[in-house]
Specification:
By secondary structure, this protein is an alpha+beta fold. The protein has a domain at about 175-270 and about 285-380: Alpha-Beta Plaits, CATH 3.30.70. It has helices at about 20-30, 80-90, 105-110, 150, 185-190, 190-195, 230-235, 270, 295-305, 310-315, 355-365, 380-385, 390-400, 410-415; strands spanning about 15, 35, 50-55, 65, 70-75, 90-95, 125-135, 140-145, 160-170, 170, 175-185, 200-205, 215-220, 240-245, 265-270, 285-295, 315-325, 340-350, 370. A hairpin with a 6-residue loop joins strand 12 and strand 13. The chain is globular. It binds flavin-adenine dinucleotide (FAD). Flavin-adenine dinucleotide binds near residues 56 and 156.
C-alpha cells in the first residue's frame, strides 16, 4: 500500500472500511492502534500507522444542507469535487478549492489544505463543525465557539476519526479563468500586491528557469472582479506578460487537456477554482511536493532570496506555484494568525530532487515559514512546532483526547514529544 505519488510505503496491516457508524465505533474502540486514511494524496508519512488504517468511505454519503443557517453537513470521505458538484446542484458553493478536487474532505481539512485568493482563507477555515469517533468509540461533535474547536480542525488525524464535517456555504457563483504567459519575476515582485489583487484567486507559476519568467493564472469571480479591459485582453498589459491564446498546464511539458477551462469561459465556481478537472487523473503521480506557508509581509523578500537558489532549483523542478491566503485562527493552520503566501515546489521524481530541502527550510523557516503538513520538508520537529504559537495547546488537546496514543504515528510522536523552543 502506497500513497498517491508512490513515494511512501505504508506500514499498516491494511485498510478496514466499516459499513456503518456502529461498526466504525466498535472498530475504533477496540483497536490498539488505528489511523484514518483519506485519499492518500499526502506526500509524507502523516497518514501512516503501524496499526490498522480505517477509511470512512463506507458510511452514509448524504449531504445535509441547512439553507437558513447557510451550512451543510458533508461526508468526511467524499472527495471535495463531488461535494462541490452536489452543493452547486442545489444553488450553493464554498468559497475556494485546492488545485484538484480529488482529495477527501477530512484529509484536506486535517492538513490545512488551501487554494489561493487575497480574501480567501484555507479550506479548513470554512469548517463550522466536526463529527468524529473518539478513542473510546464515542461519537462526538465539536462546533465553532467551543473551546477545543480551533485546535480540532487542522488536527492531523490526532484526535479521532472524522465522520462528517459542517461547512459554511454561500450562494453559487461563476468564475472566468485567464492565463498570462511571460510574466517576469521582477515585475511580479515589484507589483506583488497588485498582481494578487487582480482577481478572486491568483496563482503564479514559475520553473525558476534562467530567464526568471512565469505565468499568472487568474480566476475572476463574475460580479465581484471588474471585467478585464480590451487592452488587457489584447495582451501585453499584465506585468509584461501576454494573454495565453490556448489552454495551459501548470507543468510546461504537460498537455493541458485535463486542466479546467481557461480563455475566459464562464464556468461554475467548482469547475474553475481547481486547476484540474475532477473526472480525469491530474497527472501520473510522477512528482513530489514541498510547500512553505510564509508571512505575507515577508514574502517578496523571501522570494527574492530564493532567486539565489534558482540555478539549483530549476533542474529538479516540474514547477513552482505562489498563492495567497487570508489569516485564520486554527491552531495548526499554516495561515494561523497572519496573512500568508504559499511558496510551493513540485519536484521531479529524480535522485537528489529533495537535496535542497534543508536550504529551503533554513531560508523560509528563519521567517517562521510553516511547511505544509501533507508535503515534504526538512524541518526538525522542535523547530517546526516553534512556528505555531498554539502548538503547546494542541499537544495538550491531543494528549487529553488520545491519552494512550491510539491515533499516533511516528510523525505525531516526534511532534508531540518535541519541546516548544523559547521564542
Ligand atoms: C496532485 C496534488 C495536488 C495537491 N494540491 C494541493 C493544493 O492545491 N493545496 C494544498 O494545500 N494541498 C494540496 N495537495 C496536498 C493535499 O491537499 C493534502 O495532502 C491532503 O491532506 C490530501 O487529502 P487526503 O484525503 O489524500 O488525505 P490523506 O493523505 O489520506 O491523509 C492526510 C491526513 O488526514 C488524516 N485523515 C484523513 N481522513 C481522515 C478522517 N476521516 N478522520 C481524521 N483524519 C483523517 C490522515 O490521518 C492524515 O493525517 C495536493 C496533493 C496532490 C497529490
Amino acid at each position: 500500500m502506497r500513497n498517491w505519488s508512490g513515494h511512501v510505503e505504508f506500514t499498516s496491516t491494511g485498510v478496514t472500511v466499516p459499513a456503518n457508524l456502529s461498526e466504525l465505533q466498535l472498530l475504533v474502540g477496540s483497536s490498539a492502534r488505528i489511523r484514518a486514511l483519506g485519499t492518500a494524496h499526502s506526500f509524507n508519512a502523516i497518514a501512516d500507522t503501524t496499526g490498522i488504517h480505517v477509511s470512512v468511505a463506507g458510511l452514509d454519503s448524504q449531504i445535509d444542507i441547512d439553507s437558513r443557517a447557510s451550512v451543510a453537513w458533508v461526508p468526511a470521505a467524499m472527495r471535495y469535487g463531488e461535494v462541490a458538484r452536489l452543493l452547486d446542484a442545489q444553488g450553493w458553493a464554498i468559497p475556494n478549492m485546492a488545485s484538484l478536487g480529488h482529495i477527501s474532505i477530512a484529509g484536506t481539512i486535517a492538513t490545512g489544505t488551501h487554494g489561493s485568493g487575497d480574501h480567501n482563507q484555507t479550506l479548513s477555515a470554512s469548517v463550522a463543525g466536526i463529527e468524529m469517533v473518539t478513542t473510546a468509540g464515542d461519537l462526538i461533535t465539536i462546533t465553532e465557539g467551543e473551546p477545543d474547536f480551533e485546535g480540532s480542525v487542522v488536527a492531523l488525524g490526532a484526535l479521532g476519526v472524522t465522520t462528517r464535517v459542517l461547512l459554511r456555504i454561500q450562494p453559487r457563483f461563476e468564475v472566468r479563468q485567464y492565463v498570462f504567459d511571460g510574466v517576469t519575476h521582477a515585475a511580479l515582485l515589484d507589483g506583488f500586491d497588485e498582481a494578487f489583487a487582480s482577481a478572486y484567486s491568483v496563482s503564479f507559476f514559475t520553473c525558476w528557469a534562467p530567464d526568471l519568467t512565469g505565468k499568472i493564472w487568474m480566476k475572476r469571480r463574475e460580479g465581484v472582479d471588474a471585467s478585464l479591459s480590451g487592452e488587457q485582453l489584447a495582451g501585453g498589459a499584465r506585468m509584461g506578460g501576454h494573454l495565453a491564446d490556448s489552454k495551459r498546464h501548470p507543468l510546461p511539458e504537460h498537455e493541458a487537456i485535463h486542466c479546467t477551462e481557461q480563455l475566459g469561459e464562464l464556468l461554475p465556481w467548482h469547475e474553475a477554482l481547481p486547476h484540474f478537472k475532477l473526472d480525469f487523473t491530474p497527472s501520473s503521480g510522477d512528482e513530489l511536493q514541498t510547500e512553505y506557508l510564509v508571512p505575507r509581509a515577508q514574502a517578496v523578500r523571501l522570494l527574492r532570496s530564493l532567486e539565489s537558489l534558482a540555478p539549483r532549483l530549476h533542474p529538479h523542478l516540474h514547477v513552482s506555484e505562489i498563492r495567497t491566503m487570508r489569516a485564520d485562527n486554527l491552531w495548526l493552520s499554516g495561515a494561523y494568525g497572519r496573512d500568508t503566501v504559499g511558496i510551493h515546489f513540485t519536484w521531479k521524481k529524480v535522485p537528489d530532487a529533495l537535496a535542497l530541502l534543508p536550504e529551503i527550510d533554513a531560508l523560509l523557516g528563519a521567517a517562521a515559514g510553516r511547511p505544509h503538513w501533507g508535503k515534504l520538508y526538512a524541518a526538525s520537529p522542535s523547530s517546526l512546532i516553534d512556528r505555531y504559537p498554539r502548538f503547546a495547546d494542541f499537544g495538550a488537546l491531543a494528549h487529553r483526547m488520545d491519552p494512550h496514543g491510539k491515533f499516533r504515528n511516528a510523525t505525531l510522536d516526534a511532534l508531540l514529544s518535541a519541546r516548544v523552543m523559547p521564542r
